[in-house]
Amino acid sequence: MNSFVIEGGNKLTGELTPGGNKNAALPMIAAALLTDEEIVFENMPDILDVKTMLSIAEALGAEIGLDGSTLRMRCQNINQFEIPKRLCSAVRASILFVAPLLFRLGNAKGYPPGGDIIGRRRLDAHFYGLRTLGAKVDDSEFIFSAPDGFIARDLFFDESSVTATEHIMIAAATANGTTTIRNAASEPHVQDLAVLLNKMGAKISGLNTNTLTITGVKSLHGTKHRIVSDHIEVASYLALVSATGGGITVTDTVRSHYWMIQRIFQRFNIHLEFGNNYIKLPPNQIPVIQRDSGGALPTVADGPWPQFPSDLMSTILVLATQTEGTVLFFEKMFESRMYFVDKLIQMGANAIVCDPHRVVITGKSELRSQTLSSPDIRAGMALIIAALCAKGQSEIQNASIIDRGYEKMDEKLRSIGAVVHRT
Fold this sequence. Notes:
This protein is α+β, with helices and mostly antiparallel strands. Helices cover 31% and strands 23% of the residues.
C-alpha cells in the first residue's frame, strides 16, 4: 500500500479538520522525558514521524498509551542513553532526545538524523547550544555528556533554526540560571512547545519573538496539553482545492498563523474568509497572478517566521501552474527543494528552473497524468495536487514519505470528493 492512485480533473469541495502540528508534536514527545510524571497529549497527529518518535521513546524506557489522537506518556523508567541508529536515520527530530537524556542520565549517544533530503541541513546550532550550556559534545561520534547538568548562558544562533531552538529550549528549561536565546525561531510550533514546557513548570518568556528568556528549574511535572493544529497541512489543502477550482472550509484554525499565508493567496487573486476558528475558501475562484507595482514580475520567497514557510513552497508552486500569469519562486533556505519541479515539467507545467533556488512558473498549464515518485514530504503533497489537476489517472509512488507528515491523506481527499485509493 505504498502508492496513491488518483483520478484527476474534478473540483473538490467540502469541510476538513487538520491534525495536530507535526513540528510541535515531535519535540513534545522528546520533552516528555524531562519528567517521570504522566503527560497527556490531545490532538496528536496520526503520522509516521510521530510513530517513529514514539518508538524511540519506548526504546529509551518510556511507557506509551495511544487511543486515537490522545497520547499518554510516562517516562519514569528511562534507562537507555543510546538512541537506536535505525530510528535516528528515519526522522530528523531524533536529535531532540539528546537534551532530555542528558538531563535524566547525564549521557547520550545518537547517530546522524535522517529526514527529508532537501539539501544541507546543519546541526551546528544544536552542538553550539549544548556546548554553551556546558555539555561535552563529540559531534563526529554523536556522543554527549553533561554529568553536572546544564549551566545557563546567553546564546546567539547564527541561523534561526526551528529544531535547534526547540532543542536548546528543552535543555535550558532545566539549566542552572537564566538562559537567553537570541535569533531564536518563533514559528507556531516553537511557541506551542514553550506553552507545553511552561505547563510542566518551566519558566519561558518571549514567545512570538526571536528572543527567548528561560529560567531553569530543578524538576518538571506532568500535565495535559492539546497540540495546536497544523497550519502547513491547512495551507496545503487550501492550495490543493484552489488549484482544482473548488471550495472548502477548514476548521480548528488559529488566525495569527496565517497572516503571510493569506498575503500569498491574495497574490494569486484567491480570497479567503477567516473566522475565529475556521478558514473558508469560496468555490469557483479563478486564480490570476497579481503583478507588483509598476507591472513588475512578483516573487514568492520563503524565510524564517513570520515570513512564508519553506514547507509550503512546493504546494504553492503547483497552484501557480493552474494560475494565469507568471511568478518567480525564490527558495532561500534549502538548495534541493526545487528539484521536484522536473516532475511537474514532465506533467506539462510551463516552468523554467533558473538555478537550485529559483523557478519561474507561467500558467495556466494543462497537466498530464503520470506515474511519479514522491521525493520528500512536501514535494509529495505537491505531486498529489498536480495529479488532482491532471486529467486521467496518475500514480504517486513512495506514499509512505507523504504519510510522514500528512495524516490519513487518502481518507481526507475522498471526504472532499477526490477519486483516490492506495495500492
